[in-house]
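User: Here's a chain of 281 residues. Predict its fold as tokens.
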Amino acid sequence: MHSSDFRRQIDTFHHLHAATGPLVLVNAWDAVSARIVERAGAAAIGTTSAGMAWSLGYADGERMPVGELLAACARICRMTRVAGVPVSVDIESGFGASTQAVVDVVGALIDMGVAGINIEDGTCVDTGELAPADVLCERIAAIRQLDARFFINARTDAYFVRWDDPAARFEEAQRRARLYAAAGADGIFVPGMASLEEIAALAGEVRLPLNVYAGYAGAPTADALARAGARRISLGCGPLQSALGLVGRIATQALAHGRFDAMGEGMLSVGEINGLFPATP
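Assistant: Prediction complete.
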């Protein structure tokens, strides 16, 4: 991607976090899902690490080889480049055992024109406890050296580990948000935080745009989340979970009942799908 195009997409992505309404990301997992989401009117495309892993035959949790991650991202970027929408990639905790390895992954994404990333602290495999915050702080600071404007959305998994004291859980999420902001993050993501009261409290304490997760049944509306202070709303792997549920219903209906009704509801034509892609690669 030309430097001017890359700069424009990064600037656009920053502006989307400061717009009147929240940035809603219907996360994609491959090239065709990215085009479907973009055609529906998405201002930006975010990837889902879980969805990308599942589509490639791996469980979530950095189990897919980094080469397959980068290849999938390159295909998504090839599609979104036609529409000119910015892309943010979920890299979990970085797909690298060292800070330099993580920086190399991010450098490869920047080279293909990605405007930002999600990067998380995660949990320790052996204990299930939250990983030390200083590891992510070091990685954020090192990534920031690659580009001053590249959008780093720092995620804490504080709500994905067990807490006996909900107040302590909130305080830890808040503490980590401040640490990641100081390290150079542009946004804070706290998946698992579903209480509008807690979202409002954290949004009032953290100076960066707050990202929340809404990829589950019964999630609050975008308007309600925005009123609470959310600036970015991610559906994550929720759309793929829903799509896979539909595939399961189609298969069950066809195999067990010899009927194909579910498949025909809302089905896109071959021509419509072919029309999503440029005539030449």
